[in-house]
Amino acid sequence: MNDAQPLLDIRNLFVRFHTDTGVVHAVNGLNLSLRKGKSLGFVGETGAGKTTTALAALQLIQSPPGEMTGEILFQGRDVMKMTEPEKRAFRGGKIAMIFQDPMTSLNPIMTVEEQIMEMVELHSAVANTRERAREMLTLVGIRPERGKDYPHQLSGGMRQRVGIAIALACEPDLLIADEPTTALDVTIQAQVIDLIKKLQSSVRTSLLLITHDLGIVAEICDDVAIMYAGRLVETAGLRQLYKKPLHPYTQGLFDAVPRLDTDPGEKLAVIPGLTPDPTNLPEGCSFSPRCPHARHVCHERSCGMKEYEPGHFVDCHFPLDFSSGNRGDGK
Amino acid sequence: MSDYKNLLEVRNLKKYFKVHEGILQAVDDVSLSISKGLTLGLVGESGCGKSTLGRLVIGLLEPTAGEVVFKGSNVFALDEKGKSRFRRDAQIVFQDPFSSLNPRMSVFQLIAEPLLINKACRNRREVEARVMELMDTVGLAERLVTSFPHELDGGRRQRIGVARALALNPDFIVLDEPVSALDVCIQAQILNLLGDLKKEYGYTYLFISHNLSVVRYVSDEVAVMYLGQVVERSGNMVLFEDPLHPYTQALLSAVPTIDLDGEGKQKKRVILEGDVPSPVDPPPGCRFAPRCFRRQERCSSESPTLSEVKPGHFAACHFA
Questions:
Q1: Which domains does chain B have, with CATH numbers?
Q2: Which residue of chain B comes nearest to A260, CA vs CA?
Q3: Which residues of chain B are within 8 Å of residue A46 when distances are taken between CB atoms?
């Protein structure tokens, strides 16, 4: 495998869930690739399909009711075509995941040390698993003697760090972090972000960071992908996208967050309406019903991903044109 | 009614809980005041006592010591009539719109409940008219009147919470993390709604949040809490531009910023060691000392008091 080949390459992924109230279109034709050693911020609101995509990459979608089509290439191999034993080996061993909620993602009746050891036993050839577990605890800033504690004896920040220790114990090629700091306080969040950054450079793990916080993405990531209603609307390098958000939805996300330099009392720009119902997606561009710039064509068909400038892709008929301050003419 | 300068004054308020490990000092000697029509932002991490304080000031909890003075009279010394008046005047909006609404009640029943309990309307028609008026005020479409909470998204549910708080025409509203459970776009909608309501009706808010950007955006004055105590207090702009307490400095520097220009990425970050210690039997001295990057010997023995370091800017630190 060479470095030019993406580590994770998701091609035209669809995930649907068949439910009593209709078919939920969770992911709709997603294309996403992550380069080796890089970190990608995967941003979107609740229900955009971020976590579903991560679970699909780990082959953790139950079928039925789930149904997946498309390709998920990991180091060039399609994970959908793997056998069950192969999948088990690759989950945790090659791709590890940090879950959102540190309160519920650990086993309450196992000590944290045992939980790390379990991972090491399953996925690596390390003989002294206890020692490895203690090393991992030290690495994430927890005194090794706390390994004898049960999850409920640790604080939220420590539990999240245990989650990170478990995920990184076997030095996976890819770490998927699903909102790793949402449940944490700002000062603890800063610790966790700092830790992930340090580990990324020392272990050289690639990172897929799922979040709705553009601030955290700016802290950690090299690239950004914005997801809306089950597909990407924009993707680019961090600076490119933050300097020049092209998609009206991306722009809306930036405008909606109060910053430490927003004038108090100044009204926040709000994207009108709500994210579409995944059982009943709108015709054309799925953002068109909420888009302030939508024209006739937007309601009829979506534009498809286009490279607006080198490395900066956007799925919009009329991307924001910053040179003139006006909308582009659709070319 | 007597003359009063501040709509709400909190004087040396303490709330201790007995737990089996000892005494949990949730709120320990807090004094604050809010002038009419202003918003006080109360910031702190989980467990610092900010929600307990919020519940104390609207009388949901009885303090261990100290006073809450609302419109010039002590809330906990009111007679029955005064109490019922106070309960109309001071309201609260809770954090979690998913668990703070009764799932078996429709939007109509939820909003009508405070009106019925307080017999605020003379007949059914008046109740209906008032519910519709409130739904309009908070931006809930009329067709949702028969919906149940589970059918609505977080933003709409939070609007119901706001409508319930507004039902009895209060003067003062405690907003306990009203937007933390919401997505950024919905969060912006609710913040705008709260801003509009304040402008239109002159409400006084106590805005409790752990999100500094949000607090800065909504507040006129800010107080920072750490382990049950207020460590810094000042006008909004001053505190965010020139924080004096090391904890406030660390909090501000911990906020991830989307600003990549110039200093954005190189911003010097203060990363605090460790977690917030337990509020059960806290050690003597400054409570922040074990995590503080400026601590000296004096800090672990002598507790600093909140004092006016600069005009209108208070901090509880020996070295501020």
A1: 8-315 (3.40.50.300)
A2: B213
A3: 183
Residue of A50, A160, A181, A186 to mutate for B, most B C-beta atoms under 10 A: A186
DSSP at B282: P
Do residues A119 and A166 make contact, with C-beta atoms less than 8 angstroms apart? Answer: yes
| Closest CA of chain A from B301, distance in Å | 25
A266, two tokens: 């100044």
Query: Confidence class of residue A328 from pLDDT cuts 50, 70 and 90?
Result: very low
Q: Nearest-CA neighbor of B15 among B66, B83, B84?
A: B66
Check CB contact under 8 Å for B185 and A45.
yes
Which residues are paired to B230 by β-bridges?
Answer: B225
User: What is the value of pTM for the model shown?
Assistant: 0.83
Distances (CA, A) of A101 to A61, A73, A106, A136, A161: 19, 28, 9, 20, 12
Tokens, residue B227: 């382990």
Question: Which residue type sits at A154?
Answer: L
Which tokens belong to B145?
């009147």
User: Which residue carries 């901090």 as its tokens?
Assistant: B315
Q: Which pLDDT tens digit goes with each residue over B115-170?
A: 999 988 899 999 999 999 999 999 898 889 999 999 888 888 999 999 999 999 99
Phi, psi of A34 (to 5 degrees): -125, 125
* DSSP structure string for B33-56: EE-TT-EEEEE--TTSSHHHHHHH
CB-based contact A45 B184, cutoff 8 Å: yes
**Strand locations in chain B (E):** 8-19, 22-34, 39-43, 65-70, 73-74, 90-93, 172-176, 204-209, 221-226, 229-235, 307-310, 313-315
Q: Tell me if residue A199 falls in helix, strand or coil.
A: helix
| Alpha carbon distance B130, B167 (integer Å) | 8
For residue A255, the chain B residues in CB contact (below 8 A) are 188
Q: Is the ipTM of this complex over 0.90?
A: no
Closest chain A CA to residue B156: A274
Our CA-based measurement puts residue B240 at a distance from the nearest CA of chain A, in whole angstroms, of 8
Closest CA in chain A for residue B47: A185
Q: What are phi and psi of B25, to 5 degrees?
A: -90, 85
d(CA A134, CA A27): 39
